[in-house]
Write a structure and sequence with these properties.
The complex is a heterodimer of chains A (249) and B (287). Chain A has 249 residues and is α/β, with parallel strands linked by helices. Chain A is built from 11 helices and 10 strands. A two-stranded antiparallel sheet of chain B has the order 1-2. Chain B has a two-stranded antiparallel sheet with strand order 3-4. The chains are: A alpha/beta (249), B mainly alpha (287).
Chain lengths: 249, 287
């Protein structure tokens, strides 16, 4: 599904991502963990095209997408959420989903004029499903800026799903959530997998990562120090060292 | 009565100017290029009716196309820069257009007089309305027909997905890209529509004043253009209309009796208005 080959992104002398190889199989939930500053978010930004790689290549469904601009990668099927939630605050919840319907299927289904100048009628059903999925149906006319924290996270996930992605990159979706909310998030992520979405989960919250992922890679200083199943990773000495620091684990 | 008709004409043309900046501002771009598109429209329509003998309506169509084409061409390079850099780039463009018309001579003999743009002396004798016997009231109605059409168009945009996408880009470009919005296409299209509206406004302006010159399209006009949607707020197109009425009707005309004190009070009242309504007359809540 997604393959990174020797991917690097340097900022001046800082090697944020350094020669990273990753391979996600279709339908997998793949965890990407590591201490702060280990290059996880940079990886997400390079895969979505917000940052250009310094070297290396990115293959999606077997094709090199390294030269595509961000909006075309979305159309190809790669959607994301942001670590620090980026909604369109002055648009309503409903409108946040409306503007995000940019999948290739959406483009093919509607004529140009209907798509851009048509009113809100044509797409109600699909957006209603997304609202249902994220539990925000009763808030659909509220400005996104007025939502509570947990609701904002849910809306951002729904907005990413509005593009019907094949690959979803979640950048710390559980940050700041309480354990009840994490439980709900876990349910949603599993539902997405059932729907056939491949997921790259960047996360600090081990409770979530260990519970839902099929496979995990661990980054430290931009390099992959370990990869394996959740059980293997938990037992891995290099991982314990990177997380706990200091002495030999 | 003619005084009020004249004022209504001015308010109408400035509303078009403000609306042309409104749609660009929706995408978060502060453009000082609108006076340039206004100038292109004014000279285009003026030359077509005076030198080409065209009917005014197709001449205004040409103004719209001219304004749109120039705006589209400016949009591609200019919108690659952001914030203050964009302000400076668009300002430079506007001044470039003004200086072009300052040096632009194209006169032909018509009877025993020569007509057409003559550099710094400007373009006189754009006499389509008086030659065809239009009264001031008729001219005013004609102008407001276009104002109503532009208001209706942008009001419709605001309710469509297109207008919503413009606002999404204005809010957060990074997020907009990430949900699959083509930033360049969206920003350039807004600039192009704005250019068309400013072009029509310029064409109307040239004909009701009958005389245009480079100074009619200076930085002050560009500043007014962007000030209207900022003072009026971005919640609705009618904010821009309100702002033009407030600035041109109340401040410029209403304070005329103050003499030299007017300009001082003018600035103070704008400051007061923006303090009372920081997001404009019809602005959104900021959460």
């Amino acid at each position: 599904m997604l393959e990174l080959r020797a991917l690097s992104r340097h900022f001046g002398g800082v090697k944020a991502v350094d020669g990273l190889d990753l391979k996600l199989e279709a339908g997998q939930i793949f965890g990407l963990i590591g201490p702060n500053g280990s290059g996880k978010s940079t990886t997400v930004n390079v895969v979505t095209g917000l940052l250009a790689p310094t070297s290396g290549s990115i293959l999606f469904r077997g094709e090199d997408i390294g030269a595509l601009p961000t909006h075309l990668r979305l159309r190809a099927g790669i959607a994301r959420t942001f670590q620090n939630i980026r909604l369109f605050g002055q648009l309503s919840v409903w409108q946040n989903l409306w503007v995000a319907q940019n999948s290739a299927a959406d483009l093919a289904r509607q004529g140009f004029l209907a798509r851009w100048l048509g009113g809100q009628g044509r797409v109600r059903e699909e957006i209603a499903r997304l609202l249902e999925f994220s539990g925000l149906a009763h808030r659909q006319d509220e400005l996104a800026a007025n939502l509570a924290f947990g609701e904002r996270r849910r809306l951002e996930l729904a907005r990413a799903m509005a593009a019907k992605p094949g690959l979803l990159l979640l950048d710390e979706p559980a940050a700041g959530m309480n354990s009840e909310e994490i439980g709900q998030l876990r349910e949603r992520i599993l539902k997405l997998r059932e729907a056939g979405v491949t997921i790259l989960l960047v996360e600090h919250v081990m409770e979530l990562v260990m519970g839902v992922t099929d496979r995990i890679a661990v980054l430290n200083f931009g390099q992959k120090i370990a990869e394996g199943t959740p059980a293997e990773i938990q037992a891995h000495p290099a991982v314990r060292k990177a997380y706990l620091g200091g002495g030999s684990a | 009565m003619d005084f009020y008709f004249g004022l209504a004409q001015l308010i109408g043309v400035h509303t078009l100017l403000g609306l042309s900046a409104y749609i660009v501002l929706l995408t978060g771009q502060v453009s000082l290029a609108q006076a340039g598109f206004f100038a292109v429209g004014a000279y285009t329509a003026g030359m077509l009716t005076v030198l080409g003998g065209w009917h005014l309506v197709p001449a205004l169509g040409a103004s719209a196309l001219g304004g749109a084409a120039v705006a589209c061409a400016v949009g591609f390079p200019a919108l690659r820069v952001k914030g203050l850099m964009l302000v400076i780039a668009t300002l430079a463009f506007g001044e470039g257009v003004r200086l072009f018309f300052f040096n632009f001579d194209y006169q032909i003999a018509k009877g025993d007089i020569k007509v057409g743009p003559l550099g710094g002396e400007g373009f006189r004798q754009i006499r389509y309305f008086p030659e065809n016997g239009w009264s001031t009231g008729e001219v005013m109605l004609f102008i407001w027909l276009f104002v109503a059409a532009a208001l209706a168009l942008l009001w419709w945009f605001d309710r469509s997905r297109y207008g919503t996408v413009l606002r999404a880009v204005g809010e957060d470009e990074l997020a907009a890209q990430s949900v699959g919005i083509n930033l360049t296409a969206v920003k350039v299209s807004a600039m192009t529509v704005g250019g068309a509206i400013a072009g029509v406004g310029g064409g109307l302006y040239a004909h009701y004043t009958t005389h245009i010159e480079h100074a009619s399209f200076n930085i002050l006009v560009a500043t007014f253009a962007i000030a209207y949607p900022i003072v009026g707020g971005l919640r609705s197109v009618f904010g821009t209309l309100l702002a033009v009425v407030f600035v041109q009707g109340v401040l410029v005309e209403g304070l005329r009796f103050m003499g030299d004190w007017r300009n001082l009070l003018f600035g103070a009242l704008i400051l007061l208005a923006m303090n009372l309504r920081p997001t404009g007359f019809l602005g959104g809540r900021r959460a």
